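anyone else get weird line breaks when pasting these?? whatever heres mine. first is seq + tokens for prot A
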Amino acid sequence: MKVPIVLSVVHVAIDADGVLAVDVDGVPLDSEQTRTRDHLRHVIDEITSDLGAPVRVEVREADGSTFTDVVTPPTPAPAGAEQPPTPPRPALAGAGFRPGEEVALAYVVVRQNADAEGNASLNLPPALIAATRGGLVLLGMTSRTVTPFEAPA
């Protein structure tokens, strides 16, 4: 794949309802259906496949936060190759929570042991988030019950 000197820019605005407004180099991407946050990966893959080149993607959330990344076209499957079946997603379940309690799902980025006084201080380099295989935990917001779930490697 040849990378162009200047990348096309895909602007994605996500409103408070999760609806996407997408343009490529300022030209709105027309669609007869409403696209939501769940469609974002498919929309970006479609754009990069059509262009046959990487693009710069700039996402602006309704709260004003932004995210920028460079996305390459998906790798096409070799001709005649069968797609392996997608394994089922593991269910996240936990016990020990209070009835009706709000339960949060948290992503553990890094773990560290506390010092002799029970204190811990973590300084995270930005690249760590992209390279970490942490775990997920279910956290009871009232009971503080924690149920760990290790993501498969």
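and prot B, same format (seq, then tokens)
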Amino acid sequence: MVRLYANDLNIGYGERLIVKGLSAQIPDKKITTIIGPNGCGKSTLLKAITRILPHQSGEIILDGANIVKENTKILAKKMAILPQTPESSSGLTVGELVSYGRFPYQKGFGRLTKKDYEVIDWALEVTGTKDFKFRSVDALSGGQRQRVWIAMALAQETEMIFLDEPTTYLDMAHQLEVLELLQKLNIEQERTIVMVLHDLNQAARFADYIIALKNGEIVKAGNCEEVINHNVLKEVFHIDAEIGRDPRTDKPICITYNLLKGENENEETIYPAHADAAASY
């Protein structure tokens, strides 16, 4: 089932187009990751889909309606987004930050209702941040802070959550913690998760559907087997990748890779690169 899709989308800044003639669909109640080299339009696409950034032409359809014409509060009840580097006002407590997720439901003077407080406590409980409720956000570690931001998105009670590089600046343990939380939300609550990731192996491990971008265009979209393979990675990242199987998930894994020389695919001269199982891009 698809509730959200884009048709012939052009997005840019001024006269410079970043995303060109793109058409894509987001599977409902699944985890979708967007991958691609730096500057290929991943974050731009995410911002356009969530109406943070206007698009020049084309259309983005959610539940049969063009999001450009949708009421802001109604849209905010359907989708929540966490930007790449979310920032909050200094001195806010965790509980205060999470309460911002209730904005689409507030009326009049914006006072929180009993229902609002119940949802806030539930979001804190689900993300394992309830013990931080009265603590300053500034005092939290990177992983704790990211979980609090996710709690705020949950308090918004949307069926779709969009995240722009949610693992950036986190160590390996905290990256896994955040991704497992998102996977849990998808499985147990059927939330549609869409996120930009640099790490190819994290994308393969957690995604049901992957969109690979290059120069603002989709090179390949599909399941992990269809996208995380030698030919697609060669075209998208210009690398010669060695693909194996993850012994825990049996999904494709990039074991190592070399950089290919030049733009001509027929050139087989290779530069060695520092490569490891993380395959971060």
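btw re prot B: The chain is about 30% helix and 30% strand. The radius of gyration is 20 Å.
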